[in-house]
Amino acid sequence: MAFTTENLRTSIVRIKDRIGPIGDEMNALDGRLGDGDLGVTLVNGFRNMSEATEAMPEDLGMALFHAAKAMTAVSGSSFGTLMATALMAAGKNVKGQKEVEWVEVAQLLQSAQDAMIARGGAKLGDKTVLDSLAAIIAEVRDEDSPDALLNKAASAAREARDSFKDKPNKIGRARVYADKSIGLEDPGMAAIVRLLEALHP
Amino acid sequence: MAFTTENLRTSIVRIKDRIGPIGDEMNALDGRLGDGDLGVTLVNGFRNMSEATEAMPEDLGMALFHAAKAMTAVSGSSFGTLMATALMAAGKNVKGQKEVEWVEVAQLLQSAQDAMIARGGAKLGDKTVLDSLAAIIAEVRDEDSPDALLNKAASAAREARDSFKDKPNKIGRARVYADKSIGLEDPGMAAIVRLLEALHP
Amino acid sequence: MKKLINKPENYVDEVLQGMAAAHPETYAIGGATGRMLHRPQPVAQKVGVVSGGGFGHIPVFGGYIGDGLLDACAIGDVFASPDMNPMLESIQFASTGKGVLCIVGNYGGDRMNFDMACEMAAMEDITAVKVVVADDVAAAPPEESEKRRGVAGFVYVTKIAGAAAAAGYDLIQTQNVAQKAADNIRSIGVALTSCTVPQAGKPTFDIADDEIEIGMGIHGEPGVGRSKLTSVDTIADQMIDRLLTDKPVNSGDRVAILVNGLGATPVEELYLMMRRAKARLADLGAELAHIRVGNYATSMEMAGASITLMHLDDELECLLNAGADCPFWRN
Amino acid sequence: MKKLINKPENYVDEVLQGMAAAHPETYAIGGATGRMLHRPQPVAQKVGVVSGGGFGHIPVFGGYIGDGLLDACAIGDVFASPDMNPMLESIQFASTGKGVLCIVGNYGGDRMNFDMACEMAAMEDITAVKVVVADDVAAAPPEESEKRRGVAGFVYVTKIAGAAAAAGYDLIQTQNVAQKAADNIRSIGVALTSCTVPQAGKPTFDIADDEIEIGMGIHGEPGVGRSKLTSVDTIADQMIDRLLTDKPVNSGDRVAILVNGLGATPVEELYLMMRRAKARLADLGAELAHIRVGNYATSMEMAGASITLMHLDDELECLLNAGADCPFWRN
Ligand SMILES: Nc1ncnc2c1ncn2[C@@H]1O[C@H](COP(=O)(O)OP(=O)(O)O)[C@@H](O)[C@H]1O
Ligand SMILES: Nc1ncnc2c1ncn2[C@@H]1O[C@H](COP(=O)(O)OP(=O)(O)O)[C@@H](O)[C@H]1O
Ligand SMILES: [Mg+2]
Ligand SMILES: [Mg+2]
Ligand SMILES: [Mg+2]
Ligand SMILES: [Mg+2]
């Protein structure tokens, strides 16, 4: 068994069905230092992607492209753009393939992370979604069972979120309030936790 | 004895010396419905005119012109402009003369009033300084003693002010508050009373 | 009073200095008391066009000095008429032998002082005549239109008169076409917040947070009464209705429209008002032949807007589109 | 919230409709979601110049569409970056085979989305490159100048790039001269009052009646701290000092200066600021070769002002003075 367009479809639809309360939580979190639109971005993004699932091709690379395109249309917020960037990078990586071994997912995430760094200009340690990704990648490397992969990713994301809580934000809107951001969860890192939790069947 | 440049000089300087409290009172009165600048206009106007007295020619007409010119420089307020207009009209009337019989003063005031009507576009009955002038002219006609003339003028001005108090203002800034102006003395009419009172030796 | 100013008593003169500093090719300060703004050089061989009035309405009045516009302007204190002297100085500056037209807002002090200045000019053998702008339909009913205040319509009258003078019209022709423009202009404003006269130090009038006043004058003179702040479409409709009642617009008419900000209203909101106004006039089959949106006649930091319509004929349209150049208006 | 608007959710689109209604010869609305503003017709045979960014800053960004300026612009929601799609549409519209320059304010979303749009454009064989405007000296120290926000300096970069493209510069040349402009621009602002995002319905930030914030960003981002409202001369001095510390002005330097209103500040006060700024720069022996005063980059009804300096060389000065035409800027 391996990761296919069908998995992508199911994942998107599953999150879409569960995104309501996550959206509210993320708007509130983002509103404390940022502009409070992270939840809106997620809700609209998953709605758009789930509409796009209907016409998704079997080519996993192209399917990821479709998801990326759907994500670009939600808003100009950073998280949406970074997610679109990640999906596009992953898509490029597996273009022409119908599936990806589970053990290769970490590599896919790595390519996504690289693109996000290139796009957003943030560094590891800046207290962003990048730090969640880094923790996840480290944890799921060499994992070949989808269930274990998901569990490990979720707990890595939780740990990352919590361990960065008392550090200052060094990029994005929250940067200008760096001091005030100490003690607050980064909204993007918190979002990753909730999205992974929502992926549980 | 008759009215000469010397009388004009003395009158201006006398009022100038007594204008302080009148100015405050008129600012307050004008401020209730207008823009509160009537006192400033009077204070500056008599200051300018009293400076002009030093170089006033014996030709009474030219002397009145000088006073008019001094008055034009105070501000753009209606009362100042109308006073300048009045002085100019009176000056034209007696150009070339060194004196005017006291009994002709009413005529001089009449020429001033005509010019003020032409300039300001107000009618008798609009509750303005014109109504004071009308009352004064009616009262001092045929009067040939300067003291009696002044006394009669002052009491006519007081009566005019009081009898118009309960009518509405029909022109100028106060017009737009016509209803509110009922029961309030017109500042211009009140000013005439105080100026005549100040003329008393 | 939250203003970026120095001493209130120096406000007017320092702003004039700023204008001359920013645009030395357009504005120069002159006159015995520094209250005459004028072009750096008079333009020979044309009718002079001048104006004057209270301060605090930039670009009205002096801002419109420039090619195809005014030659000089008398500057009063905030919301107060200049005295006669800078008016006379303006006339003298603009006079090159062909006479001078004075464009005057319909305020008692402005009118009387310009009358006096014209008389004084006559003593120096300068022919100076007046056109009075009285475009505010909210200030008085049509029967008493001579009691109407001059507001943003000044801009059109100035543009028309300036273009006529530049085109070689003589004094009577210039006065006549300026008068024709004035006769064809109607304005109405709406105020949302007051401004503060610097030397007064407190707002000119009070208005509640959810209230507007349609027809309020640019110095805070009462309009047609207070009402609740509703949508811009509703407000624009009320304003347009008043304008149309006063002077109907018919199918095929060519009309110029100015949606003007009073100073503190963002241009975004002016565009919303324009959007509605254009739709209303298009419904009537009128052609908006000339459109302007922006702060063309202000009351310092007053929030609000006005709509001005000028009914056009070929002559007015041609003069409206003729070349003109100042920092606030260019064709 | 005292605004002349209709439904907050329609605010952006209705303002765009108003702009297109007022200036149909300049602005047209396009794009799949109506969020691309563009010239009525593309101009063949030149480098395309586009921009995009959050709404509420008119004339920034889309207002500067016009001859010698922008060809198209992506329009976001109030204070929020447009998504990638109208940016891509703008690039596509402006592309006539010579490449497209994107002028981008230094905000995360704007930058990332334009990067993505450029990549997407490349897939269609359109070469699109970026210049980032980051002129706000208050946002970060010189060592971290890449973290500075783009504010009113955008206007100059747009003017320079638009003029270069119109003059026949190729893409690299256009990008280089726009970058040179950006490198030579410094801005700083001062805020007196907040604005209100229509959909938020309450002021973006609180500020006391006697307080100002020097260096506050155009969305209310913190500046260099609150202080008491003093005289405009004192405030202008503080602003000029910061600009000069960042990039000195020397005797003989030629400099362009823009004193810009944030939306609700009367032009009278901007002239007071200009008066002081010019005196300060004249003291240094600098030549103010180009001066503008007005609302060129706003934050809706925010009260306040900014000062922008651009150090000129012959090329920049020539391009700055080259012909350009939109409702908000004309040479
Ligand atoms: N440059 C960046 N690189 C990586 N992650 C970023 C970057 N900027 C923001 N983020 C992440 O996005 C989250 C905020 O997303 P969002 O609310 O969409 O941004 P905004 O509204 O500020 O554009 C942050 O909590 C952070 O985790
Ligand atoms: N058109 C006019 N004709 C005659 N008198 C007038 C006229 N307008 C105003 N006044 C008089 O002037 C007084 C107000 O003077 P002032 O305060 O100088 O006027 P403003 O400040 O409104 O220009 C009024 O009380 C009235 O008596
Ligand atoms: Mg956000
Ligand atoms: Mg956002
Ligand atoms: Mg008064
Ligand atoms: Mg007055």
TrEMBL record, chains A, B:
A single GO BP: glycerol catabolic process
GO cellular component terms, semicolon-separated: cytosol
Pfam families: Dak2
PROSITE patterns registered for this protein in UniProt: DHAL
DhaL domain span: 6-201
Protein name: Dihydroxyacetone kinase, C-terminal domain
Keyword Transferase listed: yes
GO terms, molecular function: glycerone kinase activity
InterPro entries xrefs: DhaL_dom, DhaL_dom_sf, Dihydroxyacetone_Kinase
SMART domains: Dak2
UniProtKB/TrEMBL annotation, chains C, D:
One cellular component term from this protein's GO annotations in UniProt: cytosol
BP-aspect Gene Ontology terms: glycerol catabolic process
Organism superkingdom: Bacteria
GO molecular function: ATP binding; glycerone kinase activity
Any single Pfam family the record assigns to this protein: Dak1
Keywords associated with the record: ATP-binding, Kinase, Nucleotide-binding, Transferase
PROSITE patterns the UniProt entry points to: DHAK
DhaK domain: residues covered: 7-329
InterPro entries: DhaK_dom, Dihydroxyacetone_Kinase
Protein name in the entry: Dihydroxyacetone kinase DhaK subunit
Organism: Epibacterium ulvae
